[in-house]
């Protein structure tokens, strides 16, 4: 049962939440209790934690955002993007692009300041 819980499809799971306990022959209360007992957090807390780590994963990885979304446990990249945008107000690709642009500008500023100090 825990394998099912760890591979929970996406943060927007209201309908799936009601249907999933039947797949493991239990009630929603039992599934939530077992999940909490094994992992030390509620299903909601787990989903929020997964989403909280998403910006770090996006920025730490140079790989495809699809791989980041799937590694974070989202069923599809579009689920990840929708949840990310709802929580942070920006898409993962926009975050990556904005940080890289800001970093490039900062590096140019630092290197220009360094060159001017040497003159």
UniProtKB/TrEMBL annotation:
Keywords linked to the UniProt accession: DNA-binding, Transcription, Transcription regulation
Domain HTH araC/xylS-type: 27-98
Keyword Transmembrane helix: no
Source organism superkingdom: Bacteria
Identification of the protein by name: Helix-turn-helix transcriptional regulator
Organism: Rhodanobacter terrae
